[in-house]
Amino acid sequence: DVKVTQSSRYLVKRTGEKVFLECVQDMDHENMFWYRQDPGLGLRLIYFSYDVKMKEKGDIPEGYSVSREKKERFSLILESASTNQTSMYLCASSSSAGSHEKLFFGSGTQLSVL
Amino acid sequence: DAKTTQPPSMDCAEGRAANLPCNHSTISGNEYVYWYRQIHSQGPQYIIHGLKNNETNEMASLIITEDRKSSTLILPHATLRDTAVYYCIVRVASNNLFFGTGTRLTVIP
Asked: Does the pLDDT value for residue A34 go beyond 90?
């Protein structure tokens, strides 16, 4: 089975800190995604990547950046964390074999910014 | 992209079929219907997807109306482990799925 691993299950950071959320997948998937999930708002797409060193903005990219230096790893970066970035962050990956490939998700990182 | 409407919550007795409805009246001809679910404290999990024909796999069946304006996800014999939030998503392809708030299904013993 595909495994998508997020480096931390829980993270507490202070306002203004630079935060790195790491995601690694082990199935050689081309596509990787970062979502955030907030109560009442569902999952919202932040950034995604179709290939190494490529990135595309999702629906809510403001305040975030990403890095895809290796195919298996997709990092989400909060340059200067703010309290409104307190959220559950979910990473996902999928194959590019077809247009309707399944997304496989990690278990999420609950980030609290104080 | 077409918007979907789902009831916020539903209950189902264990062992009975769970029928989860989804309205997508503005769906366009090339948009697919996807279903995912999210069990508490886990990431979402793919269930099934379809365009216009009914689909079935080992997890569920997807029934899409002839006019494609609504669909129903059927879990034929619900178990306690099926308690989750179920998301109905309409999209051209799976590379940018919008997850709304879904339906919280509670399977009751």
From this structure: yes
